[in-house]
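For consistency, the fold was encoded as tokens, as this record shows:
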Amino acid sequence: MDERREETYCGASTATTAATGTEAAAGPPYAECVLCRKPTEYPESVKGITLCPVCEWQEAQRTACSG
């Protein structure tokens, strides 16, 4: 049973978007994750920091309730 649920900490959702313009790309070429270099869900034309879904989740965990 692989149940996924979105958890919140301190009222902030753990699902965050790192890139500006959050639309997923319709097809290749995808931008590389700035941390692990894997393909992201964003097109190469997206400006800003692009993270893959795994790195986005990890970053959200690190920054949750950090302030």
User: Anything to note?
Assistant: Helices lie at 53-63. The mean pLDDT is 73. Strands lie at 8-9, 12-13, 30-32, 39-43. The chain has one helix and four strands.
